[in-house]
Design goal:
- With about 170 residues, the chain is α+β, with helices and mostly antiparallel strands.
- Helix content is about 35%, strand content about 20%.
- A six-stranded antiparallel β-sheet has the order 1-6-2-3-4-5, with helices on both faces.
- Helix 1 packs across helix 2 and helix 2 packs across helix 4.
- It is globular, with a radius of gyration of 16 Å.
């Protein structure tokens, strides 16, 4: 018997799911239902004009994921900013991929990075430790992050860096 299609078989939404899996673990989004959270993310995608048949099937580039995240961080007044993974890699050229990713997770950052050249994964810290989230894996969508996992690509991606929540400084 043939199994049904799942995320990743006919779409390129792994980047959107990586964003959703990150946001739904944030305090500002914990109470959101999954369909509402997806609607908010797609609204940000739509605001850039990127809700097209091409991006829905071929996927999103890192710069698009970063712009979507920054739009959501700003709209929901969240204490994060999104930075290109390549900028972080350039700042630490001597670290191997696993070492760099582990160091980022140790600093409470989350990372969306490439895997198998055409798939986005989310790396984040949970109560159980560092984890890898793969939206296309129906049997085990999250796994412990360790050096035995398949190679991660640091050529492209996004780092979600915790910052202070926005505050308006107005002289009164």
């Amino acid at each position: 018997m043939k199994s049904g299609l799942q995320q990743g078989h006919a779409d390129g939404l792994c980047g959107i799911y990586a964003i959703l899996n990150f946001l739904c673990d944030c305090a500002e989004w914990k109470s959101e239902k999954p369909d509402d959270a997806l609607r908010y993310v797609l609204d940000a995608v739509h605001s850039f004009g990127w809700l097209t048949p091409y991006t829905l099937t071929a996927g999103f580039e890192a710069y698009q994921l970063r712009a979507i995240l920054d739009r959501l961080f700003d709209n929901y007044r969240m204490g994060f900013r999104a930075v290109p993974l390549q900028d972080v890699v350039r700042g630490h050229p001597k670290l191997a991929a696993y070492e760099l990713l582990k160091a980022l997770l140790d600093k409470d950052c989350a990372v969306i990075c490439g895997h198998d050249s055409a798939h986005w994964l989310l790396l984040k810290t949970t109560k159980a430790g560092h984890a890898v989230w793969d939206s296309s894996n129906p049997e085990k969508p999250s796994k412990k992050f360790d050096g035995r996992l398949a190679a991660f690509s640091l050529e492209s991606g996004v780092v979600m860096v915790p910052t202070s929540a926005p505050v308006a400084e107005i002289t009164l």
